[in-house]
Every structure is written in structure tokens, then in C-alpha cells.
Amino acid sequence: MQKSINAIRFLGLDMVNKANSGHPGIVLGAAPVMHTLFTKHLKVTPNQSEWFDRDRFVLSAGHGSALLYATLHLSGYELSMEELKRFRQLESRTPGHPEYRHTDGVESTTGPLGQGIANAVGMAIAECYLRDTFNRPGFDVIDHYTYTLCGDGDLQEGIALEALSLAGHLGLSKLILMFDSNDVQLDGPTRETTSDNIKMKMESMNWDYQLVKDANDTDAVNQAIAHAKTTDKPSFIEIKSVIGYGSEKQGTSATHGAPIGTEETAQMREAFDYPYEPFVVPEDVYRDFYENVAERNNRIYGEWVEMMDEYADRHPNLFSKLEQIITRDLDLDLDNVTDPVDLGTKEATRAAIGNLLPQYSEAIVELVGGSADLSGSTKVKGINGNFSAKTPSGRNINFGVREHAMAGIVNGMTLHNLRGFSGGFLIFSDYMKPSIRLAALSEIPSLFIFSHDSVAVGEDGPTHEPIEQLSVFRTTPHIVTIRPAHTNEVRHALRYALESKRTPVAIVTTRQATTVTTDISYGTFKRGAYVAKDEADFDGVLIATGSELELALDAQTLLKEKHNIPVRVVSMPSMELFLDQPKKFRDSIIPPECKKRLAIEMGASGLWYRFADEVMGIDRYGMSAPGEDVIKYFGFTPENVAKTYRSM
């Protein structure tokens, strides 16, 4: 066993030394914890790494990627020694921080501290919900744990505390967090940063707390994990370790993020009685991992496969639906779930979301989510009551005022094959952006729904009136932002989000009512822009999105009737989808030869110059007054749009 632990340590050191970059401290300190978890507890099958009923392990302390990669390699995942040698190199499978979809065995993209904890909470919610939904007497087809390993830095992040608080409240008993507690962070001892009593903090948040005094005491680590599986609360195991254990500068921040070096590593090999060359692993170490990881779990996996075969016979409908969730195959004609509304209907697009989400939820059992203490305003709420371990069939998550954790938890649920969604005001996307970015980087279809999309928020004033937020999303790679103009566009936006397989979607809705002015097909909508109303021999183009579409149409009427100027009106619910279309199509909607193109949106103007010669936007902060007064103050009236167009 000790040789196997040292194999993890020295593979990690070799990787960091060869790359001349990385974090050896956690590798040396936490290797015994990883070995104990993987060989004695973790239910995984490296040769069937996508097995749905596997335990999930998330390395929240993602800077310790060398620790994870070494353990995955030794356990038999598809991660070769050659890839370990290419640690942190261009296009390797061993990037500086773990990336989902990139490396076999990596369950989530981590590195920004605290994110992995929130992801793990989302995974534990998903396991609990799916277990209640699909298990039947004699058929525990969903029954696994979620583990995460974190460090001191993780627990100082706000997202972590938000997520831990919610997990304790929900009673997620199959969530086990192991804290690599070494009292050191990059800038020095943690005592210079925090005076928290971790035990009291965790117990106050309804977690079961245990202390292991020495990470090298693998029996104690083993017993702590075994006990964690018996509690009715989420489990927090504080494991005291020495950062950079065995190195000359052990116990100091000098070992956190700098290579130990080949010379000292060679000396440590002697001290640890590990007489093997760099990147050489003795056969008995591989055998230890094979017998205690792969072989131990292959039997469990085989029994699960047999149970699933019988489950399919006894519960064919449940099996069919579960199989769709496992394969992420949404076998549903979403066009028939909801009906378009009549032209002329007036309804806030947030209200449209509130009406449509329950209809989609009835048809899609894996659609689970909620709002950050704002469901009354965002109208974003799950069905079947509130979720908790005591009410696991509830599909509404009361996230509380925890926007950042909400986004990270939604990512965790989505990583665990649910269709997770969240709700909040667009201005508070600022608190969620780090998690939303990781959803995009991970290529997972998390759904982020926002309301109160402009200065039309009104009385709450500039602190609550978004300006730059839409531009932030639109410039974030691999995310689709949709700002629907009215209920029929909302219907299509939701369908697009639910059909997405690898792209997160942000749907942004209005507080104020908008009129249904178009009834276009889904195929037309998902091209990002369309001609909402045309005129023969049009003089120019008005381009609008969201609530400003109705404004553009009113201005079009005014220009035609009062000034005899015909203009085309284009609705552009999604810049990203439109820019993804062939140039020929884009030119057919907004002809480049047309030199009078005016874009209209109550937000930052910069991005609109890709489509327009002039932009009516807002490049300053908002005002506190009734919404209609603020809209008029900034000049978003048909008369001012017509005046601006005529001045071009």
C-alpha cells in the first residue's frame, strides 16, 4: 500500500518537474487520501468510465491536477504514461487544471476554487432526485455517492460557503467532502487570513463533521469515509496533512505552486524507499490498483447490468426514460408540448417563461431547477414542490440568495445528466459569471434564465438595471444568449435550450409586458434573426431585440405613415445564432449594400456595430424612476427612433 501511495506522489512530482510548472504540495500531502478513497471506497470502473451508477469524484482543488492524473492513470483510466509526460503541454490530455470531456475520469472542470464543491452539491442533488424517481423495491438502479476533495482556498471562496450551506439544509447524505487541511495557502499560513472554527461552522450548517489528525494514517481515513456513509447528513471530513510532505520545505507555501526539482526529488526517492526512475511504476503497484479499483468494482458493475436487464423487463417505461437520461437523448417532439399564442397578446416575457416551464417540465422528467429567492419575480420555478432529501420528488430548488452557488450547482446537476436551470435578475449574472463561463468551457447545456433585462426595471435604479451584461454573455465563447421579444419567441427559445446538447443557453426576459407581433416557425427563429415586417423597396433596416422589437415596429409605422419612408424591421433574438449562419443568409436579412441600418437595444451599444451603421443603445448607468419614465428619458420612443433614423 505504501509503495502505491508513493507511486502517486512521485508520478505527480515527475509530471510537475518535467513541465517545470504545477503544484506539488497537494500531491505529496494528499496522496494517501486519494489511494484510500480509490482503492477502498470509490465505486468506479475505469474500463467503463461512463457507467451511470458510478460514484462521482470531484477535485475541487483543481490546481492539484497532477495528483488526480497520477491516480487516474494508475487506476486504469484511458490516460497513458505518455500523456502524463506531456503534463501542461499543448493539446495534451493533462492540462494544468482538470477539464471535463478532455480527460477520461475527470467529472467536472475545476481550478477556480470552490467551483468543484458547488458542482458536487449539484451532482448529489441529481443522484437523490434520480434515485427517488427511478428506484423500485428490489431495484436500486441509482445508488451512489459524490465525493469531493478541497483545500483551504476552496473554503474561503463565497461560492463554497453558499453551496455548503444549501447542501446541509437539503440534507444530502450521500455527499462526502474531504478537506485537505494543511493550514497553508499561496501567500503563507492560513492563520494570516482566517480564524474560522471549521468544526463549528460545518456543524452549524447541518453537516456531520469528523477530524482525521494525520493524512498518512490511512486506517483513520478509511474509517472516516466508512462512517460518512452511515450518516443522514452530508459529511465533512477534515484531514490534517503536511503540504509538500517529505520535501525540504514541507509545511510552507514554497511547495504550493513551484516544482520541487529533479535533484531534490531524487533525494526524496531514497528517503521514501522508492528506487524507481522518473515515470517508472513497478508492476505490483499497477496490480494493487487493478485489484482494488477495477476488479473490485467490475463485479459490482456486472451485477448492476444484470439488475438493469431485469428492471427493463419489470419496469419498461421507467427503464426507457432512464436510458434516455443516461444517453442524454431527449426523445420528444418539443414543438407539440406548447402552442403558439395569438398575435396581439400582451404578456411580459418573464410571465411567458413562468407559464411555459411547467408545461415542458411535465414532459421532461429530468428538468429540475429554481431561482435565487426570486421565483415570484423571475417566474422561474420547478414543479412538484420543493426538493430536499426528505422530499426528493420535488423539482423546485429554493436556492436562496446564493446566485454563484446556484450556477455551479446547476452545472453539477447538468453534469449528472439532469437538465438543470436557474432563475435570477440579469444584473445578478455578475455573481454567476464564473460558473457560467465554466459551463461554456465544459460544453454542457446548463440553462440560465434571467429576467429584468434592461433599464425598464425602473424604480430600483442603476444598481439593478443591466447595461453591459448582455455584451458579456455575447462575447463569452460557446454560449448562446437569447433575448426573446414576446411569448412566441420565448417558446422557441426554451425549445432551443432544451434541445441543446453541448452548449449552455442564457434566456433573458422582460419585466414589462410586450405584444406578440410575430408567429414565425422554430426553424426560422433558431437562425438568430428574421424579417419581422418588410416593406417593398425599403430604404433601410431597423434591427431590434427583446422588448425593443415592438418599439421598432411602431417606429416603422411612424416612418411610413408620417414620412413615407419604408423600412424593414429585423428581429434578432440571438446574435450568436445569427453570426453562425452562412454569409448569404445573413446578407439576405441585413443587406450589406443597405447603408441605413439602425440597431436598437436598451443596453451597451458596442457589439451592434457589427450589424448596423448607427446604434441606439445605453452606454452609461440607468436611472431610478418608473420604468416608462426611464425608457422615455433614454429616448426609446417611436418618435425618437424615427428621428434618429431620419438623421442618418
What does this structure look like?
This protein is of the alpha/beta class. The protein folds into three domains: 2-298, Rossmann fold (3-Layer(aba) Sandwich), CATH 3.40.50; 334-515, Thiamin diphosphate (ThDP)-binding fold, Pyr/PP domains (Rossmann fold), CATH 3.40.50; 527-646, Rossmann fold. Helix content is 42%, strand content 13%. The protein has 24 helices and 19 strands. Strands 1-2-3-7-6 form a five-stranded parallel β-sheet, sandwiched between helices. Strand 10 (419-425), helix 16 and strand 11 form a beta-alpha-beta unit. The N and C termini lie far apart (77 Å). The mean pLDDT is 97.
Index terms:
19 strands, five-stranded parallel beta sheet, 3 domains, Rossmann fold, 24 helices, 648 residues
Brief account:
The chain has about 650 residues and is α/β, with parallel strands linked by helices. The protein contains 24 helices and 19 strands.
Distance between the termini: 77 Å
Unreliably modeled segments: none
Helical proportion, percent range = 40-55%
CATH architecture tag of the largest domain: 3-Layer(aba) Sandwich
CATH topology of the largest domain: Rossmann fold
Enumerate the strands of the largest sheet in spatial order, edge to edge or round the barrel. Answer: 1-2-3-7-6
Instruction: Please tell me how large the radius of gyration is.
Output: 27 Å
Shape verdict: elongated
DSSP helix count?
24
CATH superfamily of the largest domain: Thiamin diphosphate (ThDP)-binding fold, Pyr/PP domains
CATH class of the largest domain: Alpha Beta
Number of strands: 19
| Main sheet properties | 5 strands, parallel
